[in-house]
Amino acid sequence: MRRTAGLLLLFCCTVARGEIPKMGPLAQPKRADQAGLPHELTAAVTPADNPTTPDKVALGQKLFFDGRLSADGTVACATCHDPAKGFTDGKPTAVGIGKQVGHRNAPTILDALYNDTQFWDGRARTLEDQAKLPITNKIEMGMPNLDAAVASVAKVPEYQTAFQRIFGRPINGDDLARALAAYERTQVAFDSPFDRFLGGDENAMDAAARRGWATFNGRGRCMSCHGVNGTRPTFSDDKFHNIGVSAHKQNFVELARKGLQLIDSGNARAVDDAALQTDMSELGRFLVTKQAHDVGAFKTSTLRNVLVTGPYFHDGSQETLWDVLDHYNKGGVQNPFLDGGIQRLGLSEGEIDDLVAFLAALTSDSYAAIGKKELARQRALSRTKRPQRDVAAALGKKAQGAGFQGPFGDAMPPQTLRNPSTIGGR
Description:
The protein is mainly α. 40% of the residues lie in helices and 2% in strands. It has 2 domains: 2-184, Cytochrome c-like domain (Cytochrome Bc1 Complex, Chain D, domain 2, Orthogonal Bundle), CATH 1.10.760; 193-417, Cytochrome c-like domain (Cytochrome Bc1 Complex, Chain D, domain 2). The chain has helices spanning 2-12, 39-44, 54-64, 77-80, 127-136, 146-154, 157-167, 173-184, 193-198, 207-217, 223-226, 252-262, 268-277, 286-289, 321-329, 349-360, 368-382, 391-394, 414-417, 420-424; strands spanning 240-241, 298-299, 404-405, 411-412. Helix 1 packs parallel to helix 3 (54-64) and helix 15 packs across helix 16 (349-360).
């Protein structure tokens, strides 16, 4: 333990550059005695070839906050995954070196170790795979390749010593990713009012949250994608769904044809570039699989600590939880690839308020103070600004067309567009 503390102290003395967040209390590895923490599952999802050790976690934590992993020294992993913001950046879409703005929202790394895949489109299988891609994406951290990042940190004697002691070899890209992943696996966030309620404390959630839990399991139909159990503890099915978000602004068919022509799904770097740097980002999982049913589909996000990890959806287009629920309440945005589970809900305003109260009860104790302020902010905003609210559509009093009207007024029959051969133009 003394060696680990010394490693962190020594590394924390390096000069921070740019606007990289400071390493505060919320950056520390989380406690193992949290209510609701699935210990057996946690052990099962930790890879045998990258066991978690205190020294490795300390090394990964330092790397997570180190701008040397970016081409100009101004961006670190923590830039987009700030612990004080629920390991997000609080922006609609991530901003990298040179203030370049990407096309996707930075997802939280809280509880990311339980994900089957990483990123909104699942283009990385493990946290180790995920850690490498932002470093070499030209609008995120901008390194020309992973070797350049290795060379940058290898200039620091303390890093040389740490890598040699922990891994038994000089610094290399795979071990750099292993250290980052080991640190990220310590960011488990349970210990919420819901966890205590589930553990038998009837008073852990107030009456509104309990009503919201009932609606979540009933009329809200939330459990169809956000179910929770011993093997799915994050309120996500880890699957990919088109919920109509991208349909606000894209002609899916033309975009899919473009993706088929330009993107090699087997090239992780090419998919990563398209996902963050081009309008093809809106194709979602399709960029990875090139399957018609994945057009505009994005991974079901965790609901744990959702109150403090906004704005919401893959494009950060919704500012409040009320906006998110309004989107679902009216049945999303109609498009040919809309997931079959997306249907209008017809929830009352009271039921929506209760659902928000339940979602707020998924906030871990370490984020309780931040969550309280954020809930008040969102509630105040919801009383004056509700861009997604459409009561007529939610109650079925407004017809939703059989076809989808594209951005240029082109009618696109769903039965035609669901045919993969039509997308491919064959």
